[in-house]
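PROTEIN DESIGN WORKSHEET
SECTION A - STRUCTURE
LENGTH: 347
TOKENS:
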């Protein structure tokens, strides 16, 4: 049997084939590349060069809900500004379905190259609300930045003869079996069910793929109320076609200053928090996340963007990626506790 110079008895061709896939071979090649760059006077390693060139192609925002909802509206604002800052086209792609799971799973399982982002309020992505949840948001994805926070608002059809939340509760109790509510995610559905228990009335839930469809049904009085972030509903509230009766945030908003919080109305445990943020696959390199985080914070510092968020009854957030991770952890814990108290079993 012929021995090669290293003492390996295998045929040279077989050894070469294996070495192409060998971790040691890959390590040596990486070292060789660095040595070659150093010998030519280039100080930057190959990986750093790739990071410096990021981004060099279009960026995609995946919104896991139908067009027209609060996620979609906010994503389009940030996509436009991100294009200017990063000097690359940035566009929004809607992938609705399964309470946001389809879009979230698509991004989580996609390439971790920094070019496909998920835009979502992630509190609803918890096993307490979704049976056989196929994506763990906080494990399979990593946050880029916290964008805005707020709360769900009790929004009532203009066809309902109630001007205040207590009047609406009395009306719903009187019209037992005739009240429907619309929801777009498991989190808003569970929040509504908690509201029913605490306020003492019943209502039948009707699922919609996005806030746009829920709003249309509300205007037509096909559903009598929804619990949703009020951003896209505000024009119809100002026109008097819809009514905002109670806010689920910790404090009143400047855009709806006359609308009390549920805490003020005597429900201290009903805080329906909503946080929006952008995410990438968990395997995405830190340098890409950091570059995007800086860009998002730059957008959030723009006065007109901040005012647009405030006008949507939310508060601009920003900060390090960990800020949004902490927000979502708190919201998921609250929803899990609510599901346990209501003995809710996800379907």
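SECTION B - SEQUENCE
RESIDUE ASSIGNMENT:
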């Amino acid at each position: 049997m012929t021995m090669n110079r290293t003492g390996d008895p295998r045929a040279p061709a077989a050894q070469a084939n294996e070495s192409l896939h060998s971790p040691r071979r890959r390590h040596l090649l990486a070292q060789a590349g660095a040595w070659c760059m150093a010998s030519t006077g280039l100080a930057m390693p190959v990986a750093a060069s790739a990071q410096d060139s990021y981004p060099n192609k279009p960026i995609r925002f995946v919104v896991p809900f139908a067009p027209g909802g609060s996620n979609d509206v906010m994503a389009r604002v940030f996509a436009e500004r991100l294009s200017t800052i990063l000097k690359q086209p940035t566009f929004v792609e809607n992938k609705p379905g399964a309470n946001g799971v389809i879009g979230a799973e698509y991004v989580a399982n996609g390439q971790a190259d920094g070019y496909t982002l998920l835009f979502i309020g992630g509190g609803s992505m918890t096993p307490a609300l979704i049976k056989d949840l196929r994506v763990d948001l906080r494990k399979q994805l990593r946050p880029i930045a916290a964008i805005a926070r707020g709360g769900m608002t009790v929004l009532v059809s203009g066809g309902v003869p109630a001007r205040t939340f207590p009047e609406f509760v009395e009306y719903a109790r009187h019209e037992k079996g005739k009240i429907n509510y619309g929801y777009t995610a498991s989190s808003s559905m569970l929040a509504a069910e908690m509201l029913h228990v605490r306020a003492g009335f019943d209502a039948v839930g009707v699922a919609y793929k996005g806030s746009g469809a829920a709003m249309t049904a509300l205007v037509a009085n096909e559903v009598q109320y929804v619990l949703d972030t009020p951003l896209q509903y505000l024009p119809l509230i100002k026109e008097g076609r819809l009514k905002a009766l109670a806010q689920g945030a910790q404090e009143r908003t400047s855009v709806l200053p006359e609308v009390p919080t549920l805490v003020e109305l005597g429900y201290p445990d009903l805080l329906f928090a909503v946080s929006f943020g952008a995410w990438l696959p968990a395997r995405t390199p830190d340098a890409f996340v950091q570059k995007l985080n800086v860009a998002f914070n730059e957008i959030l510092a723009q006065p007109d963007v901040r005012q647009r968020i405030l006008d949507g009854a939310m508060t601009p957030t920003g900060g390090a990626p960990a800020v949004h991770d902490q927000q979502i952890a708190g919201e998921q814990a609250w929803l899990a506790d609510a599901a346990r108290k209501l003995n809710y079993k996800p379907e």
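SECTION C - NOTES
The chain has three domains: 17-48, 63-147+275-341, 153-247.
The chain has a mean pLDDT of 84.
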